[in-house]
Structure formats: C-alpha cells, structure tokens
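User: Could you go from structure to sequence for me? I need the amino acid at each position, not a summary. Structure tokens:
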C-alpha cells in the first residue's frame, strides 16, 4: 500500500516550487529531457490515449523560429531559458489506441466517430499530460515557466506543419534564478474553491 511521500518531495513539487521567468546559464541535457518524458508519460489518461506531443525547442536556430511567434513579454525569458517545450496534442491520437490499450484495441472507435469528441478528448488529456510534465520536471530538480501568450496558429504552422498536432501551451524549463522571484501570489482557501457533499 502506497504511503504519503515525504514533505520534502511535496515542497519541491508544489509548496516551494515557483513559476520562473529568469534562468541560470546551466544547460539541460538530452538525457534529462528523455527522463522527463519517460516520467510524464506514466500519468493517467482516458483509455491510456496519451495524446500529448512535445517539441523541445533548445537550439538557437529553433528558438529564433519561435521568437516572433511569442508575445513581446514572453520573448526574452524564452530566449534565455535552456529549453522551451511546446506542449501539444494529436487530434488523431486514437490511431495509437490499439498499441496503447491492447486489451481492447477496438476502443479506437470510441474516439474516431466524432471529430469534436476526439478534439475534446485530445485537449483534455493532453492538458493533463502537460500538468504531469510540470510535476515530472520539478521532481527532477528542474524549474518551469509555463505560459500562454503566443501565436498558436503560427506555432502550429512552424513546428507541427503536415501533422494533426495542435499546440496547447509552452513551458520554459531549466534552472531558475531564485534571486529574481517575486513574492508568491496567494491561493484560494479550501472553502472558496471546494466543497464536500
């Protein structure tokens, strides 16, 4: 039976973790990015559909392609981050269902009957996987700077052309400069956001 994880782990992933906008000049290795993905992919999705698709924008050339597609306020921090992950989702994720849900390969047909239903499923579960991405990154000692504020159609055309993948959000990752953090913003209290019935 699983036990509650150590408070130090909760602190690293949630309680002390922050959104970073300033980065130390410390690279993130390909091995770390692979490990990050391999942790993230273990989080649950409906029928194990796993629609998330990620491009790790790391090279100077790739960053220059991304830069004009960012809102002005997101450009400098993204160029300074060691990596910017484009978190997307495949609208035809169901083509992988026979591989991912082998005890019921016909489950593919749950999703491919309606483009609207498939898109909702891809977005919902891809967003879940994006959250797992942040948790996994923090668990590996990385800092994150998730953000909107980009030309979605432009990113899709530049990075996902010729595919059925659509971008959802961006997440800068690396090692943040804690000295430049603002005070933590407040969160809603339980009674303001939750109810037990």
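Assistant: Here is the amino acid at each position, in order:
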């Amino acid at each position: 039976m699983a036990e509650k994880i150590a408070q130090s782990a909760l602190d690293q992933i949630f309680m002390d973790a922050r959104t970073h906008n300033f980065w130390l000049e410390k690279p993130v290795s390909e091995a770390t990015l692979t490990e990050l993905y391999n942790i993230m992919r273990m989080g649950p999705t409906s029928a194990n559909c796993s629609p998330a698709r990620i491009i790790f924008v790391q090279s100077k050339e790739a960053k220059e392609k991304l830069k004009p597609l960012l809102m002005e306020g997101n450009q400098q921090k993204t160029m300074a981050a060691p990596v910017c992950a484009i978190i997307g989702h495949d609208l035809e994720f169901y083509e992988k269902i026979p591989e991912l849900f082998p005890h019921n390969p016909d489950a593919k047909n749950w999703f491919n009957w309606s483009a609207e239903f498939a898109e909702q499923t891809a977005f919902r579960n891809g967003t879940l996987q994006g959250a797992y991405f942040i948790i996994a990154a923090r668990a590996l000692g990385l800092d994150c700077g998730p953000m909107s504020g980009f030309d979605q159609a432009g990113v899709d055309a530049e990075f996902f052309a010729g595919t059925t993948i659509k971008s959802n959000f961006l997440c800068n990752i690396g090692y943040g400069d804690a000295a430049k953090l603002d005070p933590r913003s407040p969160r809603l209290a339980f009674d303001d956001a939750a109810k037990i019935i």
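One structural detail worth keeping in mind: The radius of gyration is 18 Å.
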